DNA sequence: GTCTATAAGATGATAGAC
DNA sequence: GTCTATCATCTTATAGAC
């Protein structure tokens, strides 16, 4: 049985195809419910090619994970470069997360929902990854500049983005009545109120 | 090889022992990294007993899940009965979640972090479960009474509890510098500010 | 680099004695 | 109700031809 007729897909393109297929299956069924043979079948390539490019299943997941985290980080970096004050940055970050969840729900699901500890045991928790660290830095700067109330940084960071992330989960779980974008402005406003320095907070 | 010498643990006690063991392993290694044989070995019972009491692995996970959700819901119900105004209820709910995460981290990890969809495919998402619905109701009532700003309910609910839940994740991932309790008051305050009706919001 | 066929091991589940 | 022994299947991974 020929898997990849005339080997029309080869090299880097084959690698990309396998990654895309893995993302779809991992995000839909989970890492453990997806066998290498599932990916092989759906991608229409041979199991030998998959092992040639990635070595083993865990390394395939890790390649995917690194790729997605890097793309997410690039998006956040862009926001941080574009905006300068803390409110605008928080708004931009939340808007970016929403857009990403709308346009690339599978990627978002894999980054946000997957329990990476269970299949990438040597990986630090997601919350220690670059994108999440960037969010924390944004808030830390905001505190330093007096735009955000003085608070413990983990509290401020989770207060700022926890609501949005939680709403992202609801969206990905398909339990929201309205499209995600409908909730954007209110989510940004609530996030900022949670941490904003108000006149009454000044000493 | 005798597993349960003289069958000292039997009936309901055996069932409980299996559930406790399953919780520890599922929460530490994940559902898919835990085999029935692992649970059998650690609990010191026979595989036959496990299948007698639960039928299959998925049903074991479901029994555990239902049990934990019910306990969590009971805790939230207690808070709702004790407090009447929305701010006190939100504070109480967050305090309860923190206490539960401190005293029963394995249970919290299984309820909050596990991807139940992947091993309980017929179960609705956690966010639709009783405890989470209760939180949403609390906020909805707060809006109705004018204690919370008029907002989309999903936004208000995630804004109120998303930060706390996110911080719980950080705690369970072991990335917080301080003990969780240290962050309680600030988390409650930030949660309330995110949704509170202020004089300036009144028309 | 890609392919097919196969190996080696683990897993969920069952049968049947006590 | 609990036990041991065993099964059938699936999974990851490798070998070796092209």
TrEMBL record, chains A, B:
GO terms for molecular function: DNA-binding transcription factor activity; transcription cis-regulatory region binding. The keyword Protein transport does not apply. It comes from the Bacteria. Residues 35-54 bind DNA. PROSITE patterns: HTH_TETR_1 (PS01081), HTH_TETR_2 (PS50977). InterPro entries: DNA-bd_HTH_TetR-type_CS, Homeodomain-like_sf, HTH-type_TetR-like_transc_reg, HTH_TetR, Tet_transcr_reg_TetR-rel_C_sf. Residues 12-72 form the HTH tetR-type domain. Coiled coil: none annotated. Keywords: DNA-binding. Gene3D superfamilies: Tetracycline Repressor, domain 2 (1.10.357.10). The keyword Transmembrane helix does not apply. This is TetR family transcriptional regulator.
């Amino acid at each position: 049985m020929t898997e990849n007729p005339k080997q029309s897909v080869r090299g880097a393109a084959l690698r990309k195809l396998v990654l895309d297929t893995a993302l779809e299956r991992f995000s839909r069924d989970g890492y453990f419910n997806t066998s290498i043979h599932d990916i092989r079948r759906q991608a229409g390539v041979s199991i030998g090619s998959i092992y040639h490019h990635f070595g083993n299943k865990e390394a395939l997941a890790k390649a995917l994970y690194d790729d997605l985290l890097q793309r997410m980080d690039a998006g956040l970096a862009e926001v941080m470069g574009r905006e300068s004050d803390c409110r605008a940055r928080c708004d931009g970050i939340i808007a970016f997360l929403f857009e990403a969840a709308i346009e690339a729900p599978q990627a978002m699901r894999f980054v946000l929902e997957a329990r990476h500890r269970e299949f990438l045991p040597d990986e630090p928790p997601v919350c220690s990854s670059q994108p999440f660290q960037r969010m924390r830095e944004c808030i830390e700067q905001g505190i330093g500049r007096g735009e955000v109330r003085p608070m413990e940084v983990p509290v401020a960071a989770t207060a700022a983005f926890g609501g949005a992330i939680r709403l992202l989960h609801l969206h990905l779980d398909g339990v929201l009545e309205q499209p995600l974008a409908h909730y954007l402005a209110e989510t940004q406003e609530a996030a900022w109120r949670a941490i904003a320095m108000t006149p009454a907070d000044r000493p």
